[in-house]
Design goal:
alpha+beta; CRO Repressor; four-stranded antiparallel β-sheet
C-alpha cells in the first residue's frame, strides 16, 4: 500500500464516520464525498500505468545499508532513523526500505559476529 492508498483509506473512513456521526452532514453529502474519493482513486489507478505518475505518488525501494555501511543519504531520504534500522538488523548484506514502508533484510550466509553498532540500543 503506497502513501496515496493509505491516505485514500483514511479519507474513506473519515467520510463514513462523519456522515454517520455528524448532524450537519447528511447522507447525500457523504455519498458525494465517497464518490469523489472513489473517482480520485480510479484516476490514480489509470495513471499508474505511466512511469512518471508512479514516481510521483508511489514510494521507491531504497537501499539503506550495504554490508557494514549505513547509507546515510538514502536513510535520510526515506526518513528512517538509525535505531529502526538497527532493530531490524542481525547478519545482513543489505537493508532495503520497501514501497510499503517495511525494512527488508537481506541475510548473509557468513558466521561473522554482529557489528556492535547494530546492537547499540538493544537492552542486554
Amino acid at each position: 500500500m503506497s502513501s496515496f492508498d493509505f491516505a485514500m483509506t483514511v479519507a474513506v473512513g473519515s467520510i463514513i464516520a462523519t456522515t454517520i456521526l455528524s448532524d450537519s452532514v447528511n447522507l447525500t453529502y457523504g455519498i458525494i464525498g465517497l464518490s469523489m474519493v472513489y473517482l480520485l482513486q480510479s484516476v490514480a489507478a489509470f495513471f499508474r500505468r505511466y512511469q512518471w505518475f508512479r514516481r510521483m505518488i508511489d514510494n521507491e525501494p531504497t537501499m539503506v545499508t550495504y554490508g557494514h555501511v549505513l547509507l546515510r543519504e538514502n536513510r535520510s531520504a526515506v526518513k528512517v532513523i538509525e535505531g529502526d534500522i538497527r532493530s531490524k538488523l542481525r547478519q545482513v548484506k543489505a537493508v532495503i526500505f520497501e514501497t510499503t514502508g517495511v525494512l527488508v533484510v537481506l541475510h548473509s550466509d557468513s558466521s561473522d559476529a554482529i557489528e556492535e553498532w547494530i546492537l547499540k540500543d538493544v537492552q542486554r
